[in-house]
Amino acid sequence: MKSRLAKYGRAYNDLKILPAATFVLGDTREEAHENAGRIRLQQVGPRTAIAFLEQVWGKDLSAYDPDGPLPDIEPEDNVNITRGRVRHAKDPLAVAKEWRAKAEAENLSIRELIIEVTARQQFIGTPADVAAEIDEYVQTDASDGFILVPHLTPGGLDEFVDKVVPLLQERGSFRTEYEGTTLRSHLGLQHPHSTSEGVRAS
């Protein structure tokens, strides 16, 4: 994407790519993955799992057990409903087929499947593991950084700030001090050129 900027008179660093991601830490990798599993079970309760499935099937599935298998009925092909996070699915039948294959291959219940298909990009591991993975993305120019989405608020970023940020600073992937007073300056973005209408400060 950045390689296209020159065509429009923009410099390579005029665009910052900052994907959203979550994180789960633990003193060991095993503990981190256990914590992640527990968090996802709390986020995707039984009713939430069924409600999400209904967005694809387009019909009432409240009679189905969220800890049981996927419905043996086919989804509605053309249904005028709000599809929520799966609103971009063009073919509910294809989605159902894909999900059934995944559930069968991995022996997943409805709830377990929904947890799998709705998971965001996550960094899971010890503070050192997470710092190393983020650093790899940044140093190889795969990302300019990440917008962290904590599982809990407020205070959900405290552990990351205390345990991961110092390691990222040591690696050179996170600033040690701020050099400006605006978000634009923090991201290292140049102010756009003035126009006849003037420029609004960031």
Précis, in short:
The chain is 40% helix and 6% strand.
Report on this model:
This protein is mainly α. The chain has 2 domains: 2-26 and 126-186, no CATH class; 41-118, no CATH class. It contains 8 helices and 3 strands, in the order βααααβαβααα. The protein has a 3-stranded parallel sheet, sandwiched between helices. Helix 2 (46-57) packs across helix 4. The longest helix has 15 residues, at 29-43. It starts with 19 loop residues before the first strand and ends in a 16-residue tail after the last helix. Mean pLDDT is 87; it is low at 194-202.
Features:
40% helix; 202 residues; mainly alpha; 2 domains; 3-stranded parallel β-sheet; 8 helices; 3 strands; disordered C terminus
Q: How far do the termini sit from each other?
A: 24 Å
Averaging pLDDT over every residue, what do you get?
A: 87
Q: Determine Rg (CA atoms, Å).
A: 22 Å
* Series of secondary-structure elements, N-terminal to C-terminal: EHHHHEHEHHH
* Major β-sheet strand ordering: 2-1-3
Low-pLDDT residue spans: 194-202
Query: In terms of structural class, how would the helical and strand content be classed?
Result: mainly alpha
What's the assembly state of these chains? single chain
Helical coverage, percent range: 40-55%
Number of DSSP strand runs: 3
Biggest β-sheet, characterized? 3 strands, parallel
List the helices and strands and how they pair.
Layout: E1 20-25, H1 29-43, H2 46-57, H3 92-106, H4 110-118, E2 122-125, H5 127-139, E3 147-148, H6 158-163, H7 165-171, H8 183-186
Parallel strand pairs: 1-2, 1-3
